[in-house]
Amino acid sequence: MNASATVATPPTPVPVSPWIWPGLLILGPASVVVACVITAYFVLQHPDGLVATDYYKAGKAINAQLSQLDRAKQLGMDTMKISASGTTVTLAFPDARDATSIDVILAHPVEADRDIRKTLPASPSGVYEMPISAPLKERRRVVVTDSPARSWRVESLLIPVKG
Q1: Domain count, the chain
Q2: What is the DSSP string of the chain?
Q3: Average pLDDT, stretch 68-76?
């Protein structure tokens, strides 16, 4: 053999830490614990307001509203036709059996300070015209009750025609 030939030695492997696999196994549960702590923080800082503190009073108010709706049906005030044109909102009760003054609320969908509230005098024909300062641009929830007794109530939705 040739004396100048050298035998190549294989490269030495890089040693791997014996803690790599236990570390990877602990990483999953540890990330879940961190996520739980973060979630608990958000839950405690921003409590859910779904449950009313005085649910009994809220339930009694719902029952009162239901009895007001029943009373409106008895008086024929449950059928309400609404139309808006320009600066006038017309409310018609074709089956009305009682001419009385009414309180009207045109509730804004987002901002309560932009609600429109008016008391309209009694109308024997069952047609009430409500003047407003400007044409309506957004839909409104309309709540009508008799004034001042508030013995009946009727609600509807007014969607103005865009044009």
Answers
A1: 2
A2: --TT--PPPPPPPPPPPTTHHHHHHHHHHHHHHHHHHHHHHHHHHS----S-TTHHHHHHHHHHHHHHHHHHHHHT-S--EEEEETTEEEEE-TT------EEEEEE-SS-GGG-EEEEE---TTSEEEEE-SS---S-EEEEEEETTT---EEEEEE-PPP-
A3: 74
